[in-house]
Amino acid sequence: MYAPGDVRVEERPDPAITAPTDAIIRLAATCVCGSDLWTWRGTDPVTQPTPMGHEYVGIVEEAGAEVRNIKPGQFVVGSFMASDNTCPICQAGYQSRCANVQFVGGAQAQMLRVPLADGTLVATQGIPAGTLVPDLLAASDVLGTAWFGAVAADAGPGKTVAVVGDGAVGLLAVLAARQLGAERIIAMSRHEPRQKLALEFGATDIVTERGDEGVAQVRELAGGLGAHSVIEAVGTQESMMQAIRSARAGGHVGYVGVAHGVTLPGEELFYAEVHLLGGPAPVRRFLPHLIGLIESQTINPGKVFDLDLPLSEAAEGYRAMDERRAIKALLRP
User: Fold this and answer.
1) DSSP output for 160-188
2) Cβ atoms of residues 305 and 134 within 8 Å
3) How many CB atoms within 10 Å of residue 214?
4) Which of 31, 257, 307, 317 is positioned for an S-S bond with 326, CB 3.0–4.6 A?
5) What CATH number does residue 175 fall under?
6) Helix (H) or strand (E) holding 123
7) How confident is the model at residue 246, as a pLDDT?
């Protein structure tokens, strides 16, 4: 990314082991994330040419001298946050805030160096069929993030769940809520193709209104009290307040949209009496379970990829998502 709206595919030096806990993987697939669009649109500044991408699956080519559990030749899925998976924060299930956390960037590429490989990468059962690669790639971020949103919102049996946002994370939050046993799932979406996928993933109701009108619709569908669980998957002031206001007293809001310009009114929050939990998803916590669900073909999260491009056409993937012509663009190195 050179500047807003300016993505170029260039030759760069192959990554190399720089720490004994690193691994090098050859990517089978990568993609464009909704959070990448904040940079594409200029909301997040670009001060120098920056390698993009943080979602990845592939085959391990090389492992550092201190890597014990990950071996060359394995097919692996990793998180956008590298973690040692041994510190007290990791052991509590918050690997995205590991005491030694490192961001994994530059994954829109053919090869990638992953730090803290033993704590970050999870191997599949052998080399997966090509048809499963998009599903496994989804687990690297959007599915893991959606799952965290649903868990943070305490989605489960007997619960009414509302999902604010119909991007890949919002749609997969519907899938996660369904897998966690939610009784009613309300997807908030104005876009027919996304509504169809939400229904396929398990939504029981679609709400097209936003803001106060959307809140009123959710509360009415939830018996006039509001939803037990609300998943916020956008990251704006409007979406956050819509989520909080859609929750019933004592309800839970899981927020996983990357926050931009969000401020919470203290007095309203005080009287809302809702639980709030969110942030960068600890994807590593969920990866073994999600990989198992994918390998058994219990879930097919890769359906969020509705545009499949060679890596050389990455800029078109950004444009298509920015213009809402695509939910999520898969890039094949």
Assistant:
1) EEEEE--SHHHHHHHHHHHHTTBSEEEEE
2) yes
3) 22
4) 307
5) 3.40.50.720
6) strand 121-123
7) 98
**In what helix (H) or strand (E) does residue 278 lie, and over which residues does it extend?**
strand 275-278
**Cα 166 to Cα 92: distance, rounded to the nearest angstrom:** 30
86-97 pLDDT per residue, tens: 999 999 999 999
pTM for this one? 0.97
DSSP string, 289-324: HHHHHHHTTS--GGGG--EEEEGGGHHHHHHHHHTT
3-state secondary structure 22-77: CEEEEEEEEECCCCHHHHHCCCCCCCCCCCCCCCEEEEEEEECCCCCCCCCCCEEE
Give the angle subtended at the CA of 163 by the CAs of 39 and 96, to the nearest 5°: 55
Q: Please give the residue range of the domain that contains residue 231.
A: 144-278
pLDDT above 90 as % of the chain? 99
Q: Give the pLDDT confidence of 102-142 residue by residue, as tens digits.
A: 999 999 999 999 999 999 999 999 999 999 999 999 999 99
First to last CA, the chain: 17
Q: Which helix (H) or strand (E) holds 243?
A: helix 237-246
- Distance, in Å, from the CA atom of 58 to the CA atom of 109, rounded to the nearest integer, reads 11
CATH code assigned at 310: 3.90.180.10
Tokens for 261, please give them.
């310009």
Q: 136 and 148: one domain?
A: no
Per-residue pLDDT, 23: 98
